[in-house]
Amino acid sequence: MGAVWTTWSFVATLGMWTAMMAAMMLPSSVPMLRVVAASNRDVGQAKADATPVALVAAGYLAAWTGFSVVATIVQLALRSAMALSPALALVDRRVAGAALIAAGVYQLTPFKGACLSQCRSPFSLLLHHSTGGATGALGMGLVHGASCVGCCWLLMLVLFVVGVMNIPWVILLAVAVAVEKLAGAERWPRRVIGVSLLAWGGLTLARVL
């Protein structure tokens, strides 16, 4: 019974994370999908060279499903260690503060900026990764999804601070991700988010230390 329960817990938690990541991340990928659709129209009658938009979206979601597997393992490990509250938020506020600071620091790193630039650039994606057909479409989606995971994965630590199923915060993070991705070459959104997370994390630590 324990093995069955553990398997069901993993599947249910993975389903929750996968659905949540799809709801949060897929809307901000719409500009990329539109560019792919437009390129297909330019291809015209050369169907073999077309890139199925649905498969690009599937590849993108597959990358976030990979992230969801890791998030599921982390959540179940924290629950086993009794480190999460009934609302699925970190019990130890020192750990919560450190997580916020880590997310804030990452927002300001060059690696974050590089991943964000790739995540913002559908034309670069088409230029370097478009091979047409089903395999090419899935690969394109995976590459784009991987760059977006690299861009946003530490930002998801906020959910472990406020509660994994905190819907207002899920919506707020989705908006923050969309603003970052749709702001063109502007750097201020990720910097504002980073500084805000650093301040929040510092204040959280100051209250418990």
Residue-averaged pLDDT, rounded? Answer: 86
Task: Bin the helical content.
Answer: over 70%
**What distance lies between the first and last C-alpha atoms, to the nearest angstrom?**
42 Å
Number of helices: 10
Computed CA radius of gyration, to the nearest angstrom = 19 Å
Major β-sheet, in short?
none
Poorly predicted regions: none
Number of domains: 1
Strand content: under 5%
Could you tell me the number of beta strands? 0
Which H/E pattern describes the elements?
HHHHHHHHHH
Principal-axes shape call: globular
Q: Would you tell me the structural class of the helices and strands?
A: mainly alpha
Short description:
The protein is built from ten helices and no strands. It has 209 residues and is mainly α.
What does this protein structure show overall?
There is one protein chain. This protein has 209 residues and is mainly α. The chain has one domain (2-208). Helices cover 78% and strands 0% of the residues. It has ten helices and no strands. It has helices at residues 2-25, 30-43, 53-80, 93-107, 110-120, 122-129, 133-152, 157-162, 167-182, 188-208. Helix 4 (93-107) packs antiparallel against helix 10 (188-208). It is globular and about 60 Å long. The model has no long low-confidence stretch (mean pLDDT 86).
